[in-house]
Amino acid sequence: MKSLRRSTQFYLPGLFVIGALVAFSINLNNYFLSDDFAQIGKVLGGDFSVTWGHEYGGFFRPLFIWSYVIDGRLWGAHPFGYHLTNAVLHGANSFLVFISGRADLIATSFVLVSLWSYLAYEKHRRTLLLIVSLLSFWLALLAKESAICLPFIMLVLSFRNATPGKTRTVLLKSFESFAGVLVAFIALRAYFIGAVVGGYGASQHLNFSPRWIRDRLLEASTRSVLPTLPASWSLFLFKPLQSPLFYLIVLVSLGLITIAIVVRRKWYGPSKRKTQNRLLLTLLVSFLVSLLPVISLRLNLYETLGERFLYLPTVFSVLLLAHLSVIWIRDRRVWLLILICVAGFYSINLYRTTRVWRQASQLVFALKNDLAASASNDRVLILNAPDNLRGVPLFHNGLPEALQFFQKEKSIKQVDLVSFQSLHAANDPIELNSAGDQLTLRASEAVDRFDRIKGTDCLDATSVQSNSLRLQWKPCSAPTDVFFFSSGKMNRFTRN
């Protein structure tokens, strides 16, 4: 029996990793996207300043950048190896809890190792386990700041596992150790980035508006268990309290919950229900606590790019759903049938999402090559850089670094961007009209939007709308090649 258990423990992690590789196999050869160029490009160029939060919004994530340094030594500028590392990390996380940015993968891995070590320490009281837990917490913080919620999750688990012989003083003593690590990290981070908050700024991280938190909690709860949802659901998704559909779903859910409570009282005695309730409450509170670092961020959770902000909270929401299924589905054949249906549903949605990411990577690769082949000067001006494809980042960041570090055909020293354009389809066209010193861009698709508009030394924006821009030419300070994106490619613009 012991040899069988050891064999299972040895092979099971491998099965999860293989499962992750199969699930994301369509994306393993994808090209780099957006922030990849900015972060990996700096590393490949020998500039490690980003490690210490000196650029890109004051994020202090050295372990995350060091992982790119290792991949850079192994794989160079070949994206396959970087995607392989991400898939292996995701498979490892799946094994750790039996259940899309590398920073979240690494941070979640160390958070889970820290949780496991701490629970083992509470059971066996071996100091080495506590040291492993504290060290893992420190490494999680070095990967991403969202790991700051871990001491509070530890506190929740400690109270849940408390026995009559354990006083609150003993529980709080363990919490103090993790709080001490957290304070040390905050001090170190503030030293390097020159601010206590950093990141997206205090206006987001510390803006806990009650209405926003209410809506965000509904969004996060929905998104943590469901894939990306249709844009036609926008009213229900973003303003649920103004949607009749939301109230209908709430009424149906309350009815089902009432029935479930009545059935459970018939199936289980008071002692069993008390044990179930303790675990349900622990998982629910842990989910809410793990949301705290991201719940105030003004970012879209419903796009595929927003999934990374729910990576850690999803650990607890999935465990919560699994526990509920064990409580109410007692027939193994029914449970297996439902499991197959759920797995099929998520597999289909995952396949659809990975296809969009693959299409996005192919578009980025082609556009980078278009610019490198077509530019004749070392200065490039782009009127509408493609920002994202249905939520998947294209050149949201990183276009200058893509041309600087990821192509050797042409030396391009300066890249100026007038605007960024969101795309519904890769081949979306734009209308471009030029009259004298006036230039007008209009998106042909109503859902496409222009954003982050700013003037350059060649052009000023004189009129800005969500799907159109009016620009005015100025004398350029140096010879500059002008490009615009339309119909899936970068087109060179020549003034008459």
Could you please describe the fold and organization of this structure?
- The protein has helices spanning 2-23, 35-44, 62-75, 79-97, 102-124, 127-143, 150-161, 168-193, 202-205, 210-223, 234-238, 244-267, 270-291, 311-328, 332-374, 399-405; strands at residues 379-382, 385-389, 392-393, 414-417, 420-423, 430-435, 438-443, 449-451, 459-465, 468-473, 481-486, 489-493.
- It is of the alpha/beta class and 496 residues long.
- Among the domains are: 1-199, no CATH class; 378-493, no CATH class.
- A four-stranded mixed β-sheet has the order 4-1-11-12.
Residue fraction in strands: 5-15%
- What is the N-to-C succession of helices and strands? HHHHHHHHHHHHHHHEEEHEEEEEEEEE
Secondary-structure class: alpha/beta
Percent range of helical residues:
55-70%
| Oligomeric state of the chains in view | single chain
Please report the total strand number as a whole number.
12
Q: Give the count of helical stretches.
A: 16
- Outline the biggest β-sheet: 4 strands, mixed
Distance between the ends: 82 Å
- Reading side by side through the largest sheet, how are the strands ordered? 4-1-11-12
Task: Indicate the overall shape.
Answer: globular
Low-confidence parts: 1-8, 96-100
Average pLDDT works out at 79
Report the C-alpha radius of gyration, rounded: 25 Å
